[in-house]
Specification:
alpha/beta; about 100 residues; 2 helices; about 20% strand; about 20% helix; 3 strands
Length: about 100
């Protein structure tokens, strides 16, 4: 889960922008509504800097959809990775269970 934490500090050729270039494929940004580490406002702000991206909001708390189970978000990720299909603008996904609910 923390693989990035051990990367070398200095990248060989870091990309410093611009970020608003048209990409060969659209970018899918997924963010939980109540993510304490990466707030939804940050995802929305970042989306405005990208030329071709879509935001999918997971209506839950916690960081990353790996830790906030959502069948809907997993389906959207799969569709995006397999066929490049993006969810419609404004799409939100519910969570399968909330924090502290019995497993």
């Amino acid at each position: 889960m923390m693989g990035c934490a051990f990367w070398p500090r200095d990248a060989v050729r870091p990309h410093t922008g611009p970020w608003n270039r048209w990409t060969a494929n659209p970018i899918l940004v997924i963010n939980s509504r109540f993510d304490p580490a990466t707030p939804l406002k940050g995802a929305r702000d970042g989306l405005r800097d990208l030329a071709r991206a879509r935001l999918l909001v997971v209506e839950g708390a916690g960081h990353s959809t790996m830790l906030v189970p959502s069948t809907c978000a997993e389906r959207a990720k799969r569709d995006y990775l397999v066929s490049g299909a993006l969810p419609p603008p404004g799409t939100t996904c519910g969570v399968d269970r909330r924090p502290f609910d019995p497993a």
